Amino acid sequence: MANWQQVLKKSITDVDQLIEMFGEENIDREAVQQAIERFNLRITPAALKSIKEIGDAFWQQYVPTGEENEVLDGIVDSLSEDDDSPVPNITHRYPDRVLFLVSPVCATYCRFCTRRRKVGDPEKIPLNQFNSAFEYIKEHNEIRDVILSGGDPLMLSDRRLEHFLKRLREIPHVEIIRIHTRVPHHLPERVTGDLTRMIAKYHPVFVNVHFNHPAELNKATEKALAKLANAGCPLGSQTVMLKGVNDDPAIIKELVQKLVRNRVRPYYLYMADPVAGAEHFRTSVQKGLEIMKALRGWTSGLCIPHFVIDAPGGGGKTPLLPQYIEEISDDEVVMRNYAGDRYSYPLPKELVFESIL
What we know:
Blueprint: H1 4-8, H2 15-22, H3 29-38, H4 45-49, H5 57-62, E1 90-94, E2 97-101, H6 131-139, E3 145-149, H7 158-169, E4 176-181, H8 183-186, H9 193-200, E5 205-210, H10 219-230, E6 235-241, H11 249-261, E7 264-271, H12 285-295, E8 306-311, E9 316-319, E10 325-328, E11 332-336, E12 342-346, H13 349-356
Parallel strand pairs: 2-3, 3-4, 4-5, 5-6, 6-7, 7-8
Antiparallel strand pairs: 1-2, 8-9, 10-11, 11-12
């Protein structure tokens, strides 16, 4: 059986391979080449296999098009991560946690990537500037949660990844380590017994996976997720709402239910960031609220993610909820339930009495 590095070498990485695979009539050579020059191309065999027809949910996620070259009001660093970077490879935005970029590469490059300004370029996620990051974490006692991202941390060798886990575990105030990855779908061969046994030595290590469509959860992906779960890694999933890919209540409902069956807790449903080069993926906030209304009450609470906008300019994740409260008075809350029926909740009499005083 081929190891994961050998499988990775079979990926599509240039416009000629795209034309050979999908035909000249479906690939605009000049426009696609321009898109690739701005943001790397790689589609692993597993990701390629998920594309069933031109223009489907997976084609849109992985195959570059001329739309990436049409920048209207998109922002290169849409989340202002660089403004919150005190040392190379660290983003410190929230009080008790940091984002630590440990890998410049991904197995497959998603065309909607928020960090496309850096991902795929080792000079922009420098592999020789990690000491300052470890020192920064060590010097800031408020940091209890470190999120390993990139790129994809699981693109590192076991030995290299263990280096990060070991050094972080040597810092007493670091309580939780998280790994953010799309490898279980894009390169399931990477999730080996050696990898999961190594990760288990440094628990608690949470693994946040990224799924956008229920068809991503195939047999190979589910096997990779099971290995991580069986190794004691709590699994959460992040989903980006993408126009023409998953901006549909039925698709998201099927996705979250399938995730929970695989011991993955749906964590975030994101509005697509206004990143330059990926503006064509954006859809409306109203569509996201419609999706949340189709989940709340209609399926298990375990299946319901937080719907958030990661506020442009570095404002952080802001949750959005459908409106269920109609009125709050001195003595009751009037609300609509998931089915639209109207109910009232009486406030405790002592609170009403206190408010009168």
